[in-house]
Write a structure and sequence with these properties.
By secondary structure, this protein is of the alpha/beta class. The chain has helices spanning about 20-25, 35-45, 60-70, 75-110, 125-135, 145-150, 160-170, 195-200, 215-225, 245-255, 270-280, 285-300, and strands at about 5-10, 50-55, 110-115, 140-145, 175, 205, 225-230, 260. Helix 5 (about 125-135) runs parallel beside helix 7 (about 160-170).
Length: about 300
């Protein structure tokens, strides 16, 4: 696949093994991909993608619920509290290991860019410590929050320490936005205005163009000119599948502002090769395609 543009995939996920990646997809059938590094590097070579931003996250809430469900019913209240604290510590350790793995993979593969994940289960001190450690010692380039899966709103005060530290370090913060109900309620584009207003120095990016809640994204873009977006997933769902038509996708990108939208695939859920092909066929100028495919990501994510 020959492409005349420098391409950066600003939103994808990677996993340590095919089994873990398939489990994470939970039966999604848009692609047969499993999210391993070897598979991704092969796709990048075929599609002409020069760099890819790994926005990995840890589904703390689901894992915690699964662990809690296994506790014996006969535990005393004190025993249950102790067991819950132990489970919380295990979840945090798993999150930290995931962050470290992402950073180490990027160190070994310079074409990959590491973003790290957090959860409100962490104390303010632990959030700050984890950000500083992974940025200063392991090369993390940004933060990813997945409120729909992790079940928190972006204006949750427990996240303030992470926002403050990210702003202090000049670290971009990517949020999942939109999606399917009922999880989408946590990540509606309208919910981000308070964060943007409270932290004007914070580089904020909303993923998926606010998937399914596009008018809210357009309204947010109008009221908050410092919010940026990626088009991952939104370009992977065709009009026949309930997604945007090419005309509506083009209109939305231009309403938000071409200089504020980055290409992203949401691999392994969607195919980066098809995503590149879809953007190439949109009625965008060569300069607009350069902005979306790479120049916006270089500026917004400083990569």
């Amino acid at each position: 696949m020959m492409v005349d543009y420098l391409i950066i995939d600003a939103h994808l996920h990677t996993y340590q093994s095919p089994e873990i990646g398939i489990q994470a997809k939970q039966g999604d059938t848009h692609t047969d991909y499993c999210g391993t590094i070897e598979e991704l590097l092969n796709i990048m070579e075929k599609s002409g993608i020069s760099k890819a931003v790994m926005v990995n996250m840890t589904p703390v809430v689901d894992m915690r619920d699964a662990a809690l469900s296994k506790l014996p019913e006969a535990l005393s209240e004190e025993q249950r509290r102790g067991a819950e604290r132990e489970i919380d510590l295990r979840m945090i350790e798993r999150l930290e290991r995931r962050n470290l793995w992402t950073c180490e993979v990027a160190r070994d593969n310079p074409c990959l860019v590491p973003f790290i994940g957090f959860d409100p289960i962490m104390s303010p001190e632990l959030m700050r410590k984890e950000i500083w450690d992974k940025v200063k010692n392991h090369g993390a380039k940004g933060i990813k929050f997945q409120g729909a899966v992790q079940r928190f709103y972006p204006y949750d005060r427990r996240l303030w320490p992470a926002y403050e530290t990210a702003a202090e370090l000049g670290l971009p913060v990517l949020f999942h936005s939109g999606g399917e109900e009922p999880q989408a309620q946590f990540a509606l584009p309208k919910h981000f205005e308070e964060v943007v207003s409270r932290f004007p120095q914070l580089t904020v990016v909303l993923a998926h163009l606010g998937w399914g809640f596009y008018q809210q994204s357009i309204s947010l873009a109008e009221s908050c000119p410092n919010v940026n977006f990626d088009c991952s997933a939104a370009i992977g769902v065709t009009e026949d599948e309930g997604g945007l038509s090419d005309e509506d996708l083009l209109s939305m990108i231009r309403e938000i502002g071409v200089q504020r939208v980055m290409f992203g695939s949401d691999y392994p859920w969607f195919d980066p090769i098809q995503g590149v092909q879809r953007l190439l066929k949109l009625d965008l100028t060569g300069e607009e395609k350069r902005l979306i495919f790479s120049e916006n990501a270089i500026r917004i994510y400083e990569i």
